[in-house]
Design goal:
CATH superfamily of the largest domain: Spore Coat Polysaccharide Biosynthesis Protein SpsA, Chain A
Number of domains: 2
GO molecular function: transferase activity
CATH class of the largest domain: Alpha Beta
Structural class: alpha/beta
Protein name: Glycosyl transferase family protein
Keywords: Transferase
CATH architecture of the largest domain: Alpha-Beta Complex
Helix content: 25-40%
Pfam families: Glycos_transf_2
Largest sheet: 10 strands, mixed
Organism: Glaciecola nitratireducens (strain JCM 12485 / KCTC 12276 / FR1064)
Shape: elongated
Low-confidence stretches: 1-9, 43-48
Mean pLDDT: 89
Radius of gyration: 26 Å
Number of strands: 23
Distance between the termini: 26 Å
């Protein structure tokens, strides 16, 4: 604590000195990436950077949340019929000792009928088993030994089930018409500290599963076909990642699975199963039929999934601007110089520029660069209308909406985003955007922040993995920012583009994404596509009464149009705060 206090004081002094320097010198310092990286890491250690809660405060919040969840779970238990039962499948990856803690937690739950053990034959004849009801604990080899009359709950050795977990799963299956799979949150059970480190998952996310295998246990199967499928699968795959890999096959085989997630910590982990997720995927061979390329992610339990491109579609990159010669120069030059994917056109849309230097530059750019066309939009600023106007002139089958204050970092940015947007079940694709000092500006949008919408992990340092590794893997968010957004032309046309009547400036990208999602698509945050975003430099801030009034009207429109997402974003968890963008637990 003393060290952290000293670090905070030092950083405060550094900021004071920095603000006393001339603007030009400050800009040069910010361009020294090694210096800014050291500064960012110091801020990360001090927790000043992005408002992360200290562990003791997070734990205090969790203990209150546990009590609140306990009350709700007890009510579900009391409301459920006494004869409502479940079977459990326990995978023992080590194939050595019996999972005593797991078995004890299950035996203490009357609603558990049979406990099927995989990889535990040697232990069933030992003295240790004498303390359990042997008629409930059975070895399992094939699905023919399983009675499919009841739901089947998947666990691994070393995991302890909450006393009311079965009631919660059964209640969810009863209340969710036609549900096939139910999942839950989890935490760590420490011998001295008790329940800690809650993991609060979003609703089922196939891309998060592909890139991180995040859902790997605590999975309840209601459909008999899925029970048979998992038993057949673990006959070949008996390691700790087996359940996670099976869920990947459910998606890649395009199975129609109704899935719901319970925001209760029903599973307590006493054993960790470290793994290299990319190796698990490659060695299983399950993605070979889909011709997906799998490489190691930034940390061992993540992977980068590359989808094949069946064609090379023309991408129309649309960049609105008013003046901003330097911004536009940096933006377009970086696109032309660094983009490996070359089948694109750039539509620069001039909205009433009046600086002679900018006007001359835009004309010269259009005359000298074959890929650049200059359009004139001589009306009042309306972001939605400008982009709707531009697409009428676009030749591509994919639109890329890009702000004039964007600067490319990764050479593969366009190809990375394009391979996802061309998937039939994907709608809008957004990028990972940084401020100039390499803090995160955008990594997906969460509905409900501040009663509207906000950017997940905002201000986190560039090297941070994020909550549940969500900063460094590609996965679903309900919305992404149009500061850099790709969408298929057919989807844009289907939803009638941006709403220029009600959302001239704010939330038009969120509204677009939600309309596309209503088509049955999923929107994605692409973690591999990295760019700088100098955030609305030319537009300015909402700092006048007129602008604030317009912003408030647009916020009300968003709230009235998409109330279910404001109330609970499926890409987020209701146990997490909506007051900050840092994935801390909410206060109860």
């Amino acid at each position: 604590m003393l060290l952290r206090g000293a670090l905070q004081r030092a950083l405060g002094l550094f900021r004071l000195v920095l603000h006393k320097l001339p603007m030009g010198m400050r800009q040069r310092l910010r361009q020294q990436h090694s210096l800014m990286s050291l500064y960012s890491k110091a801020l990360h250690t001090s927790r000043l950077f992005y408002g992360t809660l200290p562990e003791h405060k997070q734990q205090a919040r969790y203990e209150k949340l546990i009590l609140l969840q306990q009350q709700a779970l007890e009510q579900q238990e009391q409301a459920l019929q006494p004869d409502a039962l479940i079977d459990c499948l326990v995978l023992n990856p080590s194939m050595q000792d019996l999972p005593m803690d797991t078995l004890k937690s299950l035996q203490d739950i009357p609603r558990v009928r049979h406990i099927y053990l995989v990889n535990a034959n040697s232990g069933l004849n030992t003295a240790d088993i004498s303390q359990f009801n042997k008629t409930r604990i059975l070895p399992l080899h094939t699905h023919t030994e399983l009675d499919h009359a009841l739901p089947l709950l998947l666990l691994r050795a070393g995991e302890v089930l909450h006393q009311h977990a079965v009631a919660a799963f059964l209640t969810s299956g009863k209340n969710s018409n036609g549900v096939d799979v139910v999942t839950c949150d989890s935490d760590t059970l420490h011998n001295e500290l008790g329940r800690t480190q809650p993991q609060c998952y979003p609703q089922w996310d196939p891309d998060l599963q592909l890139s991180s295998g995040y859902m790997n246990t605590g999975i309840c199967l209601f459909a008999e076909e899925h029970q048979r499928s998992i038993i057949n699968f673990i006959a070949k795959e008996t390691h700790a990642a087996a359940y996670a890999l099976w869920l990947v096959t459910v998606y890649t085989n395009e199975s129609d699975v109704a899935t719901t997630h319970l925001p209760f910590s029903l599973l307590h982990r006493k054993t960790s199963y470290p793994m290299k997720w990319s190796d698990a995927l490659n060695e299983s061979g399950i993605l070979i039929p889909a011709k997906l390329e799998i490489t190691a992610g930034k940390i061992s339990d993540t992977a980068v999934i590359r989808w094949p491109l069946a064609s090379q579609p023309l991408v129309s990159i649309i960049i609105p601007t008013r003046n901003g010669k330097a911004l536009v120069d940096t933006c377009i030059a970086s696109i032309l110089r660094l983009s490996e994917y070359r089948n694109f056109e750039i539509l620069l849309v001039d909205n009433n520029s009046d600086e002679p230097e900018s006007l001359a530059f835009f004309n010269t750019l259009a005359e000298t660069e074959d890929k650049v066309r200059l359009l004139q939009y001589p009306y009042e600023f309306n972001y939605s209308a400008i982009n709707n106007f531009a697409v009428a002139h676009a030749k591509g089958s994919v639109y890329a909406f890009v702000n004039n204050d964007i600067e490319v970092i990764s050479t593969t940015w366009l190809g990375d985003m394009l391979m996802h947007v061309m998937r039939h079940d994907i709608g809008c694709v957004g990028a990972k955007l940084y401020y100039a000092n390499r803090r995160v500006q955008h990594a997906g949008v969460v509905l409900g922040y501040g009663g509207g919408a906000g950017h997940a992990h905002k201000y986190f340092p560039h090297y941070h993995a994020g909550y549940l590794n969500r900063l460094i893997v590609t996965h679903h968010f309900s919305a992404v920012t149009a500061a850099c957004l790709l969408i298929k032309k057919e989807d844009f046309v289907a939803v009638k583009g941006f709403n220029e009547q009600d959302l001239a400036v704010a939330f038009n990208d969120v509204d677009l994404c939600l309309k596309v999602q209503a088509l049955g698509r999923r929107n994605l945050y692409c973690a591999e596509a990295e760019l700088y975003h100098h955030e609305s430099v030319s537009r300015g801030t909402e700092n006048t009464p007129e602008k604030r009034s317009r912003f408030e009207r647009e916020l009300v429109y968003l709230q009235d149009t998409w109330p279910e997402y404001i109330a609970q974003d499926p890409g987020y968890n209701c146990n997490l705060t909506l007051r900050q963008e840092n994935f801390a637990l909410r206060e109860v």
